[in-house]
Amino acid sequence: MTGGLFESDDDSLQVVFRYIVDKVNTDQVLLPTSFLSATVEQLEYQDSFQASRKVCDLLSQGMVAIFGPQSIEPRATVRSTCEVLHVPHIETKWDFRTRLDNHTVHLFPFAKTLSKAYLDLVKTKNWKNFAIVYEENEALIRLEELLKDPLMQEKQRTVLVKQSLPGQEYRKLLKEIGKAGVKNLIVDVPTENIIQFLRHVCLFHCFLLYYSGHEFWTRGEVF
């Protein structure tokens, strides 16, 4: 039995969790002699006390692993409880400040590994210039290896870095990038803003009538 702890705004994540459990159960090769069952508990956002109580309830029911929650303090509470009781704790929320315990499984790649992968992609695509659009300061940690590219120091590859400020329309940034003649984008915006960003990209590209560039996204949730 696997327990899932989801906060009030985690509806889509809960759907994915149930889907994965069903997918594993229908796979005749992966766990041919086992059957997974999922028990889900709802939490209020950032409620550590409720998280502590509900993880104990789940473990008392015999759960062999706990998934979630997403917000910082409840996640830390659940991680600590699972570590003490030697129960696997599965996390998907990226947080560079997190120090993993012996019983924590983090599904999001390490920031340095991910950053090197972005650099490899830029090298493979042979991008001589590109722009980075980001919102949160921690995005620069995800892009650290890319920004340290020796070719940038030698000015053989150029990058235009643009931070979107709260309330600022993406169209303004896209126009600035377009005026600079840059057509390749690396985008790091919160998952909930991706659709809005794509709408602005579409409007901007349609306005130009012609576009031959590329974008790729640094948020694991997109893939």
Brief summary:
43% of the residues lie in helices and 19% in strands. The chain has 223 residues and is of the alpha/beta class.
Task: Indicate the structural class.
Answer: alpha/beta
Strand order of the largest sheet: 2-1-3-4-5
DSSP strand tally: 9
SSE ordering: EHEHEHEEHEHHHEHEHE
Q: Determine the strand fraction and express it as a percent band.
A: 15-25%
How is the biggest beta sheet arranged? 5 strands, parallel
Helix amount, in percent?
40-55%
Mean pLDDT: 85
CA(first)-CA(last) distance:
27 Å
Q: Uncertain segments of ≥5 residues (pLDDT<50)?
A: 207-213
Write down the overall geometry. elongated
Rg over CA atoms, rounded to whole Å, is 21 Å
Quick tags:
single chain; alpha/beta; five-stranded parallel sheet; 43% helix; elongated
